[in-house]
Design a protein that fits this description.
By secondary structure, this protein is mostly helical. The protein has helices at about 5-25, 30-50, 55-60. Helix 1 runs antiparallel to helix 2 (about 30-50).
Length: about 70
């Protein structure tokens, strides 16, 4: 069941791409300074692609419009 609306998906995708690209393009070094933003960016891209956020589901939230 999807719980992430289209505007939310777009924002998640853009932020995810930026978080993945930033350490790779800027040469931040190694370790957590590179791994953390890439991991967070990957999660954001995945939630945007699938339209489902487990944290939203945990708290009963949704950014989708009601079609009813």
């Amino acid at each position: 069941m999807r719980n992430v609306g289209n505007p939310d998906r777009i924002v998640r995708a853009l932020i995810g791409i930026a978080l993945i690209a930033a350490p790779l393009l800027s040469g931040w070094g190694s370790g957590a300074a590179v791994i953390a933003p890439i991991a967070i960016g990957t999660v954001l891209l995945a939630t945007a692609a699938f339209g489902f956020c487990p944290i939203y589901a945990l708290f009963g939230l949704s950014s989708r419009r009601n079609s009813a």
